[in-house]
Amino acid sequence: MKKYSKKDRQMKLQVAIEENPFITDEQLAEKFGVSVQTIRLDRVALSIPELRERIKHVASVNYADAVKSLPIDEVIGEIIDIQLSKSAISIFDVRSEHVFKRNKIARGHHLFAQANSLATAVIPNELALTTQATVRFVRSVNEGERIIAKAKVRPATDNRAITIVDVKSYVGDELVLKGKFEMYHATQK
User: Fold this and answer.
1) Is residue 1 a part of any domain in this protein?
2) Domain range for 118
3) How far is CA 107 from the centre of its chain?
């Protein structure tokens, strides 16, 4: 692995983050052969925000106007991709405030909230409410893990006011939650 001068590393770091704003400090440290702390110091010197803030910025710029059914800041997790009436993806980092103190396992309502708010966000109407949800928790999620929720809208049925949204949440490639959300939707008058 090539060793870069501080100036070269910082220039390449800036380019790497511009190309992929979702890259983690750990991935950058590995890429440049330095410590995570060095990457963090470089980011601070370059006024580049941490991953969480970069994700929020990308989501607010790209999706704030797209999501009609609820304000973007009410979505649990950060939306990283959305195609209204089709699909959506969000990420949620499990931190200490989301887990049971004794065993560091995430409280189920956080996983449910991420999936439910994503199912709501993918509906293109101003009013979208969950009428029924069937959720299966496949495995526990631990503090420090990242949950990636993927919502997929099923083709329309006879009842146009109800849309079914399937949500699957993963940690890495491992399924942790599977849900079916029946969403009532209408344009507010």
Assistant:
1) no
2) 54-186
3) 17
